[in-house]
Amino acid sequence: MDLIPDLPSGPLDVYRKQASFNWKKMKLFLESPEDIEIANEAFKYMEEEPIFQHPDRDLTLEEERHLTFQRMKKVYNSDILYPDDLFMNRNKHRVLNNVISLYDWSLLARKSLLIEFPMGAFLGLGTDRHRKFINSLMNREIGFAFCLTEISHGSNTKALRTEARYDIESESFILHTPDFEAAKCWAGCLGKTASHCLVFAQLYTPDGVCHGLHNFVTPVRDPQTLQPYPGVTIFDMGAKIGLNGMDNGVIMFNHYKIPRENLLNKTGDVTVDGKYVSPFKDPSKRFEGRVGITEFGVINLTKALTISIRYSAVRRQFGPENQGEIPVLEYPLQQYRLFPYLSGLYVLHCFSVKLKDRNMSFRLAVMGGSEDPDYLANFGQEIHALSCFSKPYSGWMARDAVQESREACGGHGYLKAAGFGKIRNDNDANCTYEGDNNVLLQQTSNWLLSLWVARQRTDFTRFPMGTVSYLNQYNKYLNMKWSSDTFNRNLKDEDIIQTCLDTYCWLVCWLCKATSQDMETLKSSGKNKFDIKNNCQIFRAHNLSLAYGERVFITWFLESIKEADVSLQIPLYRLLALFSLTRVLKHVSSYVEGGLINGENVVITNIEEHITRLLSEILPDSVSLIDAFAPPDFFLNSVLGNADGRVYEHMYRKMLTSPGSVTRDTNWQEMRYNIPSKL
Amino acid sequence: MDLIPDLPSGPLDVYRKQASFNWKKMKLFLESPEDIEIANEAFKYMEEEPIFQHPDRDLTLEEERHLTFQRMKKVYNSDILYPDDLFMNRNKHRVLNNVISLYDWSLLARKSLLIEFPMGAFLGLGTDRHRKFINSLMNREIGFAFCLTEISHGSNTKALRTEARYDIESESFILHTPDFEAAKCWAGCLGKTASHCLVFAQLYTPDGVCHGLHNFVTPVRDPQTLQPYPGVTIFDMGAKIGLNGMDNGVIMFNHYKIPRENLLNKTGDVTVDGKYVSPFKDPSKRFEGRVGITEFGVINLTKALTISIRYSAVRRQFGPENQGEIPVLEYPLQQYRLFPYLSGLYVLHCFSVKLKDRNMSFRLAVMGGSEDPDYLANFGQEIHALSCFSKPYSGWMARDAVQESREACGGHGYLKAAGFGKIRNDNDANCTYEGDNNVLLQQTSNWLLSLWVARQRTDFTRFPMGTVSYLNQYNKYLNMKWSSDTFNRNLKDEDIIQTCLDTYCWLVCWLCKATSQDMETLKSSGKNKFDIKNNCQIFRAHNLSLAYGERVFITWFLESIKEADVSLQIPLYRLLALFSLTRVLKHVSSYVEGGLINGENVVITNIEEHITRLLSEILPDSVSLIDAFAPPDFFLNSVLGNADGRVYEHMYRKMLTSPGSVTRDTNWQEMRYNIPSKL
């Protein structure tokens, strides 16, 4: 327990003493001692280094980027943040990335995109002939930007229009951007920094045949002068809503030549004389990005909820007659606004850890090559379906939690120094990149609907992660009905969770069935495939993806609880019951439509009563539940959320010591009034 | 029609040609020709004046405030934006305020708070002896900040702790701030600008009796030097999430003397020898603030939806096989994400116009003094209940619409130049000031529940605005049941709306009944009043406030439609039907609990089918529906939302001409790479 320092005493003690469990044990349930140790060392290092100190004043865009650049250099040169075994030790890499994320998302993005992502691309798509680029990257002689999205195409990658035409005479590819709409954009580190790009372009052989998107190593700036090469035009995309420590850029190529060898040729190559050859197909789809972004939500939920729960436990307003004011956290409505997200944080955290582990098992199995191809295909499908759900869900949950937290902190939550503005602005990007949330979510339902069609000839237990095994019993579930006893008052939390899981099994089966039926109806009315799919999203396919994923969230957290120390299980069951019930309650329309509810109106009331009970039971634990996640104050960087709970003292100090707080405006002479008459 | 210039031709023409109505007629349904003329002149003036040009680069906090200050001066000195009859012509004032709001919220806040709010306060709370302050305000010799909220108290104004003790000897009040937690904060224009404050403080007479909150005119800074006076400490609150053109401040008084006459003494005074006298009680509660903020949501919805709908109509992605790509607006899911807010914009706009009118009628009736006091009391209660609903609802609707619009514009929506960041950050404050949204909403349900208790001895038709008249028939409504024919497919939009209204009548009655019953149960279990109220918020009282208000929204918009040109009625009915159905669908849990649904699961499916139909019917009108609201491009200030729809050209121009876009970073020397090996 020496690993986890005690928290400072203050107004939060009242709640901390009420907790039903030891928060340090809870922290060890969430993170291993090794991870805590790695993180502690990194926290300490960053907190002490001058370059990581928080500036006193707002920075201009250029200052913010410059500072982020300097910090990135510091990260690269630090044995603690960038140890030699970083790429060998995935877990250490993950923990250190989380520490940097807690500090600043722009810094994480910069240091990941410039060097680490291209490393991955060379290993995944390149061959021996690209080793020189890896060496140069290791020596910091070059830095990369990843160019996929174009101005007029994002989600529809097949429609990308940047061309790479092979020229036999010069043995080179000629990259060309037909017009501004085909310019590569949003590429991180491209605005001012990158010397090279990894450009996805349509590969054309001299016979005029297009072989689809391939990736080309493309030098774009002189690493010495940072000037773009002739034939390359680069725009900086300027300020964004958030992530302004990162310089995103736009790039256009004007018949720009690059050597033939710069094609990353693992899955397709062009011979010197211009023939396209495809050595083998890589069966492993890559979901690294989405799996990783799922975890981003955990970081943002952690920060937002640490601030709002601690502040709500200290902030007093109104109270029972003649009894003084009470902390706003005592209000059931305030609990209802925050605790479902607190439960979501726990559930999402455990999910994202497991998803990473299982994704790793999958990739090892693919690399091993000895597994049954069917098994691998099923495994890959599940990972794909889950990550297409969890990436959007995580970003949206964080989005909503940040906003609710901001509002739950009232006026003071609107101060920049409260920290919510930055969390919100940075999290916002997660809802869009690596696949727009709404587009991505369709992948999950598409897969489920394709399974449903084949349900009579499929054994759903063959999917290795078990996320669809209940589809074997679709008949049983479709016949399910809620009785007036469902969710009755005397139900224990474990049983509540089980009932929620059954409800989700019903819901997934029913939504599969209902969506398929709607699609059939549309088909018989003559609609094309494209329209049929789009016309079933709103009330059906969208909810299907959510229902499938929420059920996995619950299932996996339940597994985690069973592995937890006994002293932690009661509070964890409460969290999961709250999570499950609040999510179940969002699907009531489907229960009515599908006939799960049929005159049993008492069930909803039962659910609501359980939620109300759970909120009051979680209340005494709530501060400790968030303490187990909370980063050090330096990383939270919020006047409202410090571990000592001394909110007003921190506000006072911040205001008193902010440059210019008590002095006149520099332009005060202009701001004076007309000569006043005697008042 | 000369009043309304034609829109430029471009990619949006396709949709504009599909519209079922004349968008200029629609604009005239929304605004009178007089209002359009006033706005046009103001738009033109601001668009031409150098000081209102949009800067090319990000400003620092100090620069942003300075520029806003200069703009405020320009407003004050402009015959167009600040005409002589401004205070005599409330409608002109409203229209000009809307123009300024469309331009910049900070500018509106600054110019309103510094001079206009104190004018109102002097007229409302002051007497003849304060005329000199009005004169000085008119001459711009002084400027005010309004000081109510304290560091540790916002919503609970009774617990405010700043003291004003009357001192007989010096015939003055001595203002004192006991500690930092009692410091006045969030006062607009206080950080750097105001020479005077209107301070709400607890008035103590020499006998030690506290007479509650009163308002004191308090000089705080020398108008010539802008230095605070001795005895006054002022902090600038620094950067906020948004509204950074405004300087909010904190102020503390150290036994600070002000003349006896500086008490605004309309409703209470202290004699020279220290006796408290209360001339009369002012019966009119003031809801100006909340009524006004309801309209703020309209402005933010307008801006966000103009950008997202126009962009969605131009942005193409995917399409049916071999048929090219289609605008993303063609996707039902995209329509479902945006059109309910578009309908909300129409409904909210008409509501806020009517609410302002009725509030004005109420105030005139109070001033007239000839009306029946019961009538006035009922009128006042309705205005209070409605504005306590509409202020939160409007802020939240705008919040959600801005966020959905941001996400609906994908990656490009994340550019600062898209405009959503600023709209979101500025709108965010609306959810908190003038009463925290969640706290305010309780006022509405409190009132309804008090009416419910007295239902058997109340004639609800006596409430002048008719917002509760259906409570007379509570028995009829409580016996209502949906049949399988409710919302059947053949229903016309007018009938759908009527069915939604009936549903709301049922819902309000049932929520009144259910909440009251829950309260009785809690009472008999021994809970105190305070806890009883708080324990009924989540699933009951909160929804009750929403249901009451949503019904009024629908009712009032229905009135407006009936007054509209016949050619506009079909599209308007569609909007209202969509608004009503999507809102009705949010209360399904209550229908199940209250037994309105009882085995009739087809009703929900009917509702969903109508929504789907309405989306497709609104689609061809959608661009023109938002055109009728859209401000000139200069005010929208978004590369994605221009009236010509030439999105990519505007993006190109913006990036090409932004300072530093194609040059190296100022710090490029530091950003160079290690000396590279030969690549």
UniProtKB/TrEMBL annotation, chains A, B:
Active site residues according to the UniProt entry: 434 (proton acceptor)
Acyl-CoA oxidase C-terminal domain segment(s): 498-671
GO biological process: fatty acid beta-oxidation using acyl-CoA oxidase; lipid homeostasis
Domain Acyl-CoA oxidase C-alpha1 stretches: 289-449
Binding site for FAD: 149, 188
Pathway: Lipid metabolism
Lipid metabolism listed as a keyword: yes
Cofactor(s) the protein requires to work: FAD
InterPro entries according to UniProt: ACOX_C_alpha1, Acyl-CoA_Oxase/DH_mid-dom_sf, Acyl-CoA_oxidase, Acyl-CoA_oxidase_C, AcylCo_DH-like_C, AcylCoA_DH/oxidase_NM_dom_sf
Presence of the UniProt keyword Electron transport in the record: no
Protein's cellular compartments: Peroxisome
GO cellular component: peroxisome
One MF term in the entry's GO annotations: fatty acid binding
Pfam families: ACOX (PF01756), ACOX_C_alpha1 (PF22924)
Gene3D superfamilies (alphabetical): Butyryl-CoA Dehydrogenase, subunit A, domain 2, Butyryl-CoA Dehydrogenase, subunit A, domain 3
Location (main, coarse): other
The entry's keywords: FAD, Fatty acid metabolism, Flavoprotein, Lipid metabolism, Oxidoreductase, Peroxisome
Family, similarity comment: Belongs to the acyl-CoA oxidase family.
Protein's UniProt name: Acyl-coenzyme A oxidase
Organism: Armadillidium nasatum
